[in-house]
Amino acid sequence: MLGRTYETQNCSAARALEIVGERWSLLIIRHALFRGITRFGDFQRSLGVARNILAARLERFVDEGLMERQPSSENSPYHDYVLTDMGRELQPVIVALTHWGDRWAAPGDPPVTFRHEHCGGEVHQQTVCRDCGQQVAIEAVEAQPTAQAMSLA
């Protein structure tokens, strides 16, 4: 059984969970990505998360490089929490997790759809082979350890 941390796991998914695997983490990132929220109070009001939990998550995101804390404006005591490239790259994770939730956790009419702002088409995640460009079925995906992982074993 895994403990509260995953440092003994030689797995990038486990390492990612160290950063964004807590209950509120991806919801905070979702609100930053798709609602444009950057202010502490706006996150708190929209999510209903306790202030101490939100403060800890935002601080962790800044420490890990997912967000940057920036002054809201001159002479303002407030800060904005702005996603970095690292944080913005969680977008496909949130889209895929939402689609999974629509199908398996809350079937029925989805509460939100993701649309391409240019044409209005619905956005879907796919698993595509980097070499040949074909869409790959789940059954055809293998997890193979890299040479580095083999040397650590």
Automatic annotation (TrEMBL):
InterPro entries: HTH_HxlR, WH-like_DNA-bd_sf, WH_DNA-bd_sf
PROSITE patterns named in the record: HTH_HXLR (PS51118)
Domain HTH hxlR-type: 11-109
Protein name, entry field: Helix-turn-helix transcriptional regulator
One Pfam family hit: HxlR
Domain of life: Bacteria
GO MF term list: DNA binding
Keyword Transcription regulation: yes
Alphabetic keyword roster: DNA-binding, Transcription, Transcription regulation
PANTHER family for this protein: TRANSCRIPTIONAL REGULATOR, MARR FAMILY, TRANSCRIPTIONAL REGULATORY PROTEIN
